[in-house]
Design a protein that fits this description.
The complex is a heterodimer of chains A (about 350) and B (about 150). With about 350 residues, chain A is of the alpha+beta class. Chain A has helices spanning about 55-60, 70-85, 90-120, 120-145, 165-190, 190-195, 205-210, 215-220, 250-275, 325-335, 345-350, 355-359, and strands spanning about 5-10, 20-25, 30-35, 150-155, 155, 290-300, 300-310, 315-320. Chain A folds into 2 domains: about 1-40, no CATH class; about 45-345, Cytochrome-c3 Hydrogenase, chain B (Orthogonal Bundle), CATH 1.10.645. Chain B has about 150 residues and is α+β, with helices and mostly antiparallel strands. Chain B has helices at about 10-15, 50-55, 80-85, 115-145, and strands at about 40, 60-65, 70-75, 90-95, 105-110. In chain B, the strands form 2 sheets. A 3-stranded antiparallel sheet of chain B has the order 2-3-5, with no helix packed on it. In chain B, strands 1-4 form a two-stranded antiparallel ribbon. The longest helix of chain B is centred in the last third of the chain and has 33 residues, at about 115-145. Classes of the chains: A alpha+beta (about 350), B alpha+beta (about 150).
Amino acid sequence: MGKRSVVPFGPQHPVLPEPIHLDLVLEDEQVVEAVPNIGFIHRGLEGLVTKKDFNQMVYVIERTCGICSFGHGTGYCEAVENVMNVEVPDRAKYLRTIWFEMSRIHSHLLWLGLLADAFGFESLFYQCWRIRERVLDLFEMTTGGRIIFSVNQVGGVNKDMDKGMLQKILEDMDVIEKELKQITGTFLTDYSVESRLKGVGVLTKQQAHDLGAVGPFGRASGIAYDLRMTGYEAYKYLDFEPITSDVGDSWARVDVRIREIFQSIDLIRQAIGKIPGGEINVPVKGNPNGECFTRIEQPRGEAYYYIKGDNKPYLKRVRVRTPTFANLAGLCEMLKGAEYADVPIMVLTIDPCISCTER
Amino acid sequence: MGKFMTFASVAMKNLVHKPVTKMYPDKAIEYPERSRGHVEITIDDCISCGMCVRSCPTGTLSVDRDAGTWTINRFDCVQCGFCVQKCPKKCLRIVPGYQHPGDAKPEETFTKSPEVLKAEAERRAAQIAAAKAKAAEAAKAKAEEKN
């Protein structure tokens, strides 16, 4: 046994867009144990529920994170709608689905870029973000915001998409698909990329199951668990299967996420093909009375939203559990036995979103 | 064993493609119609009801009914558009164009035009006078009833 030493990783580190701290216990160059430490950017968003009414909270909750903001708004609105027995119009469900899948494309492309940057492939990083820019432009055109959309409201959505916008989305999806195909080969078959990803950070199916890994992180280890299959919003009208891989290493996570982008493009096409006309929101009267627990599939995995109201405009309790929080356990297990130089890549492959985790 | 030179075709295209980035700020950015840049008000249509103040999640708005003013701190505004939704007179709207950065957080105040203020004051005085007259009449009727 070599001499043990503890090396701090983060909160500031080139691969980390957000602060998380890991104490890495090393034996020579090998990680023996990783102890996570979070809490650097806790903002107390859930506590604001005592000061903002349930309609204003939509705008607070969607600011939990900059990447999955639309999902947070949708999950919260769904929970409140369930408590108040509001039936959202079909068109609103389809619009939410389209925006949600566009968010998934934008989140996965952002992550692919960050990963390329982490293994030192700068031009691949720029290509990913160039493709992502097109999605952001679509968001700006349809919602008015590039990151925070503010289109969700309890009872539906507050902005509609006309035919021209839907057509533009379809056209841009064709371009994104074509451009992404050109760089897919680099991510999945290139020699230098493979040497950084293959066999790095293996999490077996059993480990992923025991540690409750969610999202693409769990699916890359062979767990076919995708909450979209439960059929919330318009997913019940769309045809798709969860994307999985049996390999379980960092390369498999890239593979799963790239295939998920193509799946999202397909889902957007299906949704635009089937979108019905009609209202986009219904008026909501009264205050939420009761409690509800909803689960949705964020780009990074399963997210929980819990709300509790007692017939007052101010909710009693709001709780969000985000996918990164669930995946930290898997990360720490995966880090055991890893080479020190592989740690940044492995931390990045769970797609950590620390703002979400700490709220 | 992986392949080599997988990125070459994408990289070579950059030699003949135009740059993707725009030369900002030399070239102005065109915002789409829906872009949520900042909140604007047609102050003369405002009835100073305060719905926007109560709806604002960040509490950046304030309304003074007597002075006829509507005040916003643009640095605290998050452009969510909730005030625009709630405004009963639809005199608020959200338009493209972002707030420029600065080293202070000044408040911006909009005041109603003197004609509108005068008309409002007259209307309010008339309302008060009418209410007073009504109250006096009611009191008189009550007194007569007693007699």
